[in-house]
Design goal:
With about 375 residues, the protein is an alpha+beta fold. About 20% of the residues lie in helices and about 35% in strands.
Length: about 375
């Protein structure tokens, strides 16, 4: 991957600039924030299909007879029960029971697994994993060698099937398999972070431009569009997916973050006892979904109650699909109940808001 003026570039950098993308710094990378516009790209994913470059993400690979058990001790979710050809979302947690990162773990063979981590956390996560990985398990950080391209949306399956050596609709959600895409060796998983059906295609860096071009060509008549980080954020927020650095980090625990469902507390994993204690005692604050009546809340805006600051917004935007100003925020447990009125301080003015049920958007399935 190229590095220019201090920023790293994915193998698709030239494709983005040729498509007229607006490029911005992100986690040490120069990435496309938008092409045609955030709202247009958001709606393309909801209504047809969008193509994401996620090559900045990290890819770790694990091999050995003890690999499955080792990851089960590192990740909060049930990795020991993960079948070959399947993936699972979970958390890397530390001894304090707070969140090092949120990850997806893939089991490609009985003794071969992979983990996708957030771009900003690759070095931190790699060091964390190495500290706690037993001898006998091989660990390879192949982040710099692996490109990740993600077609997402209701037409993604038929578009990807046109250039894959299989009907990808045969994959179950959170299923993954080795195949060929655009004639090159690839791993395809039915995963994503948009709230829509979608796929993530792992290929070597050198093959990424070919796969990108063929997917755009195959989906042209179906309305596929390249999608930047801006729409990626609005899509995940409507679906109420956490973003590391906003909703979760090493100061937050799974229970308060609404991610207790990822924690299998009847097994041993790093931080398990602290998380179980937090669940038993109950958190002092919770993440809540807000609809804001008169303005767009942003990360860091105070949440107020009767004029007094009581919490903080972690993410906020206008939701192009739900047509409302939406936000996630940490608030005291007493104010986290659906229907509770609060306010968000925007430009020194307290703007009315209400706690609502999340996700803000849920895909309708047949």
């Amino acid at each position: 991957m190229r590095e220019d003026m201090g920023f790293r570039h994915t193998p698709l950098y030239a494709k983005h600039t040729a498509l007229g993308a607006k490029m911005v710094p992100f986690a040490g990378w120069e990435m496309p924030i938008q092409y045609a516009g955030i709202v247009a790209e958001h709606r393309a994913v909801r209504g047809a299909a969008g193509l994401f470059d996620l090559s900045h993400m990290g890819e770790f690979f694990f091999e050995g007879a003890g690999a499955l058990a080792a990851l089960d001790r590192l990740v909060s979710s049930d990795i020991a029960g993960l079948e070959v050809g399947h993936a699972r979302y979970g958390l890397l947690t530390n001894e304090k029971g707070t969140i090092v990162d949120d990850v997806i773990v893939y089991r490609f063979a009985p003794d071969r697994l992979a983990m996708v981590v957030n771009a900003a956390n690759i070095e931190t996560d790699a060091a964390h994993v190495r500290r706690h990985l037993p001898s006998g398990v091989r660990f390879d950080d192949l982040s710099d060698q692996t490109a990740l391209i993600a077609p997402q949306g209701p037409r993604a399956a038929r578009i990807l099937s046109r250039v894959a050596a299989m009907n990808v609709d045969d994959l179950m959600p959170f299923g993954g398999t080795a195949t060929k895409v655009a004639g090159v060796a690839a791993t395809v998983a039915r995963t994503g972070y948009t709230g829509e059906d979608g796929f993530e295609v792992f290929v070597p860096n050198a093959d990424a431009p070919r796969v990108w071009d063929e997917l755009l060509a195959a989906g042209k008549d179906d309305g596929i569009q390249p999608i930047g980080l801006g729409a990626r954020d609005t899509l995940r927020l409507e679906a109420r997916f956490s973003l590391y650095g906003n909703e979760i980090d090493e100061t937050t625990g799974p229970i308060e973050a609404g991610l207790g469902w990822t924690c299998k507390l009847d097994k041993e994993f790093l931080g398990r006892d602290a998380i179980a204690k937090a669940k038993g005692e109950g958190p002092k604050r919770r993440i809540a979904g807000l609809v804001v009546d008169g303005g767009v809340a942003r990360h860091g805006h105070p949440v107020t109650d009767k004029g007094a600051p009581v919490g903080v917004v972690t993410s906020g935007t206008f939701g192009p699909t739900v047509q409302r100003n939406i936000a996630l925020a940490y608030v005291p447990v007493a104010l986290s109940k659906v229907g509770t009125p609060v306010a968000v301080r925007i430009r020194e003015k307290d703007v009315a808001a209400n706690v609502v049920k999340t996700p803000f958007y849920r895909r309708v399935t047949e």
